Amino acid sequence: MRSLNDRKGQELIDGVLQIVDRLKPLHLSIVGGDPLVRYRELEEMIPLLLERRIHVQVVTSAFRPLAPRWATLGDLNVVVSIDGLQPEHDIRRAPTTYDRILKNIAGQNITIHCTITGQMMKRPGYQREFLEFWTPRPEIRKVWFSLFTPQVGDHLAEMLQPHERRQAIAGMLALRKEFAKLDMPEGMIRQFATPPQSPKDCVFARTTQTLSADLTTKIVPCQFGGNPDCNSCGCLASMGLAAVAAHKLGGIIPVGAIFKASVEIGEIRARRNASLPPPEEPLRVLR
Question: What are phi and psi of 272, to 5 degrees?
Fold first, then answer.
């Protein structure tokens, strides 16, 4: 990643707009690092993206104040990443402490996102304490949980043991009934128990394209890059789309079967068009 050159200023704005005009996505997530490093460009770019009828999501640590007008933009979702309760978060994310985040999100409409780790699950009631702190606050519109996703071969304290994963799932299923702002349907939560076994089985991986900061380098096989351990996947978006794929139309035909057939048809057409000349500037691939 250090070999990549990110863009800034008008070059960044023009580059993003050129990509969305070419790919015409329904949704665009802007993640980091931290996108607020380029806050001036974001404040100019986001209205232009919304004019194109693209749903925009900005994922940030909220290390600096958010633009006041963002609170009024209906198709913008600002997600603030929180690394657990205040003692753990403040150590890990300093100087972006709880106090600083609360100051910087005042008056906004925020989604709080927390990735559940093995350390958290060793403390009974951790998920409940987290929700009890964040959900009463008026700035918080909803809360999401993910589970820590390792790379193949990792041996990290953050990794959940099988029984901890089951406890986390059970906790979310129970807590969603008590905390209305825990915006996670039951079907989505249950997908954490049986995540897609590989990127080719993952609807999210197959329907998204992730570009790095230079706007040309593709990150594969999914947003995690590298060689993610799909058996331990805890990606919220992956589980959400897996739940959609599992839904049966008319109680008979799974949506996933229709999606798979559609992809296969698209791949056949792509092979037929393989003789066409490649684009002038093919995307680099970052693994």
Answer: -65, -30
- What whole-number distance in Å separates Cα of residue 149 and Cα of residue 242? 16
Cβ 12 vs Cβ 214: under 8 Å = no
Q: Phi first, then psi: what are they for 195, rounded to 5°?
A: -70, 160
Domain boundaries, the chain: 194-287
* C-beta separation of 92 from 83 below 8 A: yes
Distance between CA atoms of residues 97 and 109, nearest Å: 19
Whole-structure pTM value? 0.89
Residue among 27, 32, 23, 20 at smallest CA distance from 62: 32
Question: Hey, what amino acid is at 87?
Answer: P
**β-strands 217-219, 284-286: how paired?**
parallel
Stretches where the chain sits below pLDDT 50 are 1-3
DSSP assignment, residue 1? -
The answer to whether the CB of 211 falls within 8 A of the CB of 19 is yes
**Sign of the alpha-carbon torsion through 147, 155, 81, 36:** negative
